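Appendix B. Worked example

We walk through a single record from start to finish. Start with the input: the chain for Ig-like domain-containing protein, Pygocentrus nattereri, length 658.
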Amino acid sequence: MWITEGLTDGKDLQRKVSEKRKMSMLVIFGVLVMFTGDAMGSLSMIPDCSFTQSDPCYGAVGHPLHLQLPFEYELNLRKNDSATHTLSRIFKVKHHRITKMPSDDQRWQFVSKNRTIIISSAEKRDSGKYFLDTFDFSGTSKGMYDLQLVIEENSPPTINLLEFGQSIMCVIEDFYPKPLSIKWKKDDREVRGRDWKTTENDSGSYRAVSVLEANLTSSSPGNKYTCEVTHGGRTYEKNLSPAAQFSLKINPPPAKELFINQRAVLECVLTGDNQKEVEGATVSWTVGGRSPATRDVRVGGVTQAGSAFTKTSTLTLEESVWFSGDEVICSTSVDQRTTSDKISVKRGANSPPTIRLVEFGQSIMCIIEDFYPKSLRIKWKKDDREVRGRDWKTTENDSGSYRAVSVLEANLGSSSPGTKYTCEVTHRGKKYSDNLSSRVQSSLKINPPPAKELFINQRAVLECVLTGDSRKEVEGATVSWTAGGRSPATRDVRVGGVTQAGSAFTKTSTLTLEESVWFSGAEVICSTSRTSERISVKRGGQRPSIVIYKPHKSVLVTDMVSLVCEVSSSDLTNVYVMWQVNGGQYIEGHSMTSIKKDNTLTVLSYLTVPGQQYNRSEFACAVKHANMENSYTLTTRTTSMCKANCQAPAIMNIKIRV
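Next comes the structure step. The output line below is what the pipeline stores for this chain.
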């Protein structure tokens, strides 16, 4: 047992000499007494546990543990021996002096100034029931305290990576003890993320979140993002790569081969995100409509870069064949998807453009290739109305022809089915075009009730949407409902008229139920004469835990801050989440996602607010869920920076579990 003591008031030299003599005596018994304020400052701490707490105190093997003692004149600490059912003395202290022989365990230190025990490196044998008797200067008892100390092994973290828009979220769960460090890497280069406040679970373990603004849409296929976590002296990591695009491309012949060997060597590169598909794909060539000799074709093996798999087929032609202008085509079939690419030399004569439209997220790209001369004009249309796109720089191919690209920010996700987008190109006085239409679905679908109605009006409003490409059929279709095998009251059903969006026709029937009926788990069926769709609330058996993740410090007023409400349970089922700011109206989060891991389902609701609002407001995550007790009462968790900054410091009970 080591005792550390600090003197804050001025003492004369004689007393210091006297104390040093006492220290020399104590060192013989393995007790060290420190006097300087600097020494005391190096051991200042916030206690992990206190003898005044009623819950057990948890510690981790190999980690320090701080125990707060009451500020009394005399302290007598004993431990219960479970084998003999007797109490063995750990030490006895009067004022600042140990008056009874302490334990010879040098891992234990007593800091008299703030009445704290420090276990420098906890061991399993430190577990047990401890009793502390306290007395004042006259020997009168001031009370007895007991503390159950539980020392457990470290619990390593589990790591999940999630994509949120342009960002990646690293969710680190179930680790103990609390300290850990997080590092982000893009490929092998370290990049900076934003760490949120570490929170404690009900079980005593911890969870943490870090977010990397990765700008995923501009990442190259195969880029690897890694979240690296160091905990308990060990490193754990998880990585994520943006999906590789499936494509087939012919690279034109390099000049070196044409000059040195008088041959044109063309490469056809097949790229995909499924190794088995890329390996099994057959690549074939034609030159001027004919298959080349087998000796002129060579196929390489599959290579991997990040999550992208590539296979290359090489065709060698005599330069006379290449310069003849014959069209060379490379084609393949992967999982019943056939694609091809073509190339030919351009000899300076007029060449019309070839046009392809490609969807990229919410945008449409018009790729215009193999035209000569360079000058051309591009126009975009949405249905019959001209809209504005963005033209990229026209580039020259190795063959002497040209290539151009124009992009239209079309917001495809909000486009009506059947909307037609046209890229119109004018080249040498002639017009060429290609078009793309948003898909028309022929379907019957029940949309689940929105959270807003459940929260504000305590009703479940379900929509049954019938979509088809024949107006007559959609108009004539009868939509009917049942809830729990019974037809609802006529007043609870409303049928809208037929609407048209492009070539798609839609009719919507709306059913309104009391939330008690919806949360009872009754099966709801929407039917027409041709098809039916059904839906019901899924009920679990355990109430979910709700945690709000947020940055642990105030942010700049110009920043945008993201908060995440995590709702999780081993049998989580239907859950509805909304937010409140300063107790105002319910608002929906900006996005929602779910994670299934082992037997646990987690739902994340993501809310983004300005930094100024974040620093000054209270945020509430409100949850309605279904469970076996058929309870659908509202559960709310709140957080605010004001609370985090203004609360008085308190003793922390740190629970560590593996």
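Two observations about the output. The chain is about 10% helix and 50% strand. The two ends are 28 Å apart (CA to CA).
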